[in-house]
Design a protein that fits this description.
Two copies of one chain form a homodimer. Chain A is mainly alpha-helical. The first copy, chain A, has 16 helices and two strands.
């Protein structure tokens, strides 16, 4: 779907964000510039910057400062992806080679750090202490979530609470921060900041649940990475959790975690994916995602019926329907 | 030297910083808490937090916000060390095992990120947009310097300008930021902010030159890491630069860079270290360090003769005399 259809009234302003991001890659040091260009090529839908602009659209709309904020949030997202892909030893992201396949792991660590730094720098240009505070706390939350995931790596025991905590810190916290800080910069009253914050968090939870479902249901080409990748990373997501809780006799997931050889592991992953697809696990997961989209929509009840609100509402549909 | 002797009037207030740092390690997640405790054990002299407090001592002294700032700067320093040690594949730091020898490299990347995040978070608690801006820019400067170092890795061609640029971004920028932001938080007039900033930068340059000299002259035990380590990392520092420029017939450094086998490399390092020690390279380097200490002292000319100023002056002596 084109940005205009998806992001309605803020589609044009996203071009400013794009130019701000391009400025980050324009560094005098040629090798670094090439790497940053490459990273900016692996572009997603720019949903986070769009959320910043959409959330600000109900009150004042200080475009210049919003552009800095939106770019800062997209860069923070990019920085976490660089370190995530390194940590996950991923070879591709959206079908494009990840950084550590092009340069050393050492350089990849530092390019990620550099993006964190530029992101923090851009955020200070909003001039809002409150925005910076939310931003800093979110960065800490994201890292905390990643650390828990990696340090509990290989543990089969995951509860629904663990899963929620992980996806909130990993994904929903940044979507929540996008709408919350966009609202703050627009000078929105507290009830509206709170409403838009809740919208962002619930949209983010739904977004990640759908992501975790797609890891089972999508094909490798549209996903840009191999199917069953979460299991390969020993990460228990919602569909797997359903299977473990409701089909205790099914051994496939345990076999993945116990596998010591590549072929044995791939065979176990294939069986686990099939077991999930042949169970109500996907339906159950998508129902939870739908539930959070409904909560996201309900959070907007008090806001006026404007193109911005209608776009935020339609994003809750898009999140559920997306195939990649 | 004890903190009281070294840091005079702010020695007691450094305890507050220590408590603030300890709070960062007090996280509910046990594995992470252990790792953070370990990192806080590898403690240096806390020169950066002391500089924050000393620079603030000429005007207002908002202890609570200064404590947050000083802890933020020490954490930023710690975060860069975690990633540096990972990138340098160092096994020890100040004689203590580095993080990646205790947990996976993946976890080490994320612990470093977590410290960056907590550092940024603490910095926002100063409530000063200007402080946050300087802080964010410094983080970008440090990462940029590290990246240049790693991406130009193995290049023998280094100029004095390259060297200065690298040590300013790697070390002096953070000492400069410590004194500059301490001065800003104290509401110092612009001329005093600028004077204290210049003091910090020159002290930092001298500090790093002495560090680079110690890599040749110290013994392994007091250094907490092997001698000749910079050459081992293919990093050209000031003494090596002098040798390359003034003893073009000496092959040892080129042999280090050309070495493909461990024994061959270690032999070349031994010869290069000996060549440096038997030349005026160390004297030349220490003269430059002395020169920057004199500039640091001169920067304080306009400030009143207080215990804080006397302590800052004596720190320029300490930096030159330290053996580890």
């Amino acid at each position: 779907m084109a940005a205009t259809a998806l992001f309605g009234p803020v589609a044009d302003d996203l071009d400013h964000v794009e130019r701000e991001l391009a400025r980050v890659a324009r560094v005098e040091y040629a090798v670094l510039a090439t790497l940053l260009d490459h990273l900016l090529e692996i572009r997603g839908k720019r949903i986070r910057p769009a959320l910043v602009l959409l959330a600000a659209g109900f009150h004042d709309y200080p475009l210049d400062r919003l552009t800095k904020l939106a770019a800062a949030i997209e860069l923070l997202h990019t920085a976490t992806l660089v370190h995530d892909d390194l940590v996950d030893e991923a070879a591709t992201r959206r079908g494009v080679a990840t950084l550590q396949t092009l340069v050393s792991e050492r350089a990849t660590v530092l390019v990620g750090d550099y993006l964190f730094a530029r992101s923090a720098s851009l955020c200070t240009e909003t001039g809002s202490v409150r925005v910076m505070r939310v931003f800093g706390d979110t960065l800490a939350t994201i890292c905390d979530g990643e650390l828990r995931q990696i340090l509990s790596h290989g543990e089969l025991k995951t509860s629904l609470d663990d899963y929620y905590r992980r996806i909130i810190s990993k994904t929903a916290s940044l979507l929540r921060t996008a709408t919350e800080t966009g609202a703050i910069l627009s000078g929105a009253p507290e009830w509206a900041v709170s409403a838009l914050r809740s919208y962002g968090e619930n949209l983010g939870i739904a977004f990640q649940i759908v992501d975790d479902v797609l890891d089972f249901t999508a094909d490798e080409r549209s996903l840009g990475k191999p199917v069953g990748n979460d299991l390969r990373q020993r990460t228990i997501t919602l569909p797997t959790l359903w299977l473990l809780d409701n089909r205790p006799e099914e051994q496939a997931v345990r076999d993945v975690f116990a596998a010591t050889e590549h072929d044995e592991e791939e065979d176990a992953i294939r069986r686990a994916v099939a077991a999930v697809l042949n169970s109500p696990a996907i339906g159950y997961s998508l129902n939870l995602a739908r539930d959070h989209c409904a909560r996201a929509r309900a959070a907007l009840d008090g806001l006026p019926d404007t193109p911005h609100r209608r776009t935020l509402l339609s994003l809750t549909e898009y999140v559920l329907e997306r195939q990649s």
